[in-house]
Amino acid sequence: MPVLLIASVLLQFVCLVHMARSGRPYWWIWVIMLGSYLGVAVYFFTQILPELRHDPAGRRLVRNVRDRIDPEHQRRRIAQQLDVADTVENRRRLAEESLRLGDYANAAELYRSVLKGIYATDPAFLLGLAESLAGLGDHAGARDTLDALIKANPQFRSDEGHFLYARCLQALGENERALEEYEVLATSYPGEEARLCYGRLLKSLNRPRDARRVFEDMLKRAKVAPKYYRRKEQAHLDAAKQELAELVPATE
After folding, report:
1. Sign, CA torsion 176/180/185/186
2. Which of 17, 27, 108, 161 has a CA that sits 20 to 30 A from residue 196's CA?
3. Tens digits of per-residue pLDDT, 33-77?
């Protein structure tokens, strides 16, 4: 019973704060306070939820919650739209959603189905196909697809595509070429994952000094980076610290 009471008080407090900040009529106080859970529910569904639907951050929050509860919801909805209108756009959306869910085989099939006619060399579709093939473990196919992408679209630039290309080369044992790609990514990729992979490859190739330099640069960069960036990249920064700790005995 105390737990239910505490939860009710907390929910009422949240609703009252929202009411005061948003300028809602003060009679909502009586609905929230006297209605307990029912009052909170009425306020949430009539006042907060509609507001969330029109706010970009709120829509993301609602979508994230929904995706956790039912991760296939969006794909089912797009698949229904594709049944009604079999368009390139609907196939693209379904391919992207399948890729996001890790259904690489279906994503690859959908991307291949749209890589025809005027879309035969579309860079976004080719990149999606390469990501799908890499997810399936076909790194040679992914590399060849990226080569075809650049040949057909020499001006196209994609940080994720470049990173994928380096990972494919590494997976195929083409380590020297992979190092060349990672070296470029070390100064251009908007995140720490590429630098972490670069350092780990150097370490695996028995180049501990170079690996240490990469890991130390990651941590130096993080010290002057904004807080939001450090939070976003925390897992990769922690991994760099661990890699450095493991390098110490081997290089002293």
Report:
1. positive
2. 108
3. 877 778 788 877 787 767 666 656 555 655 665 566 667 778 889
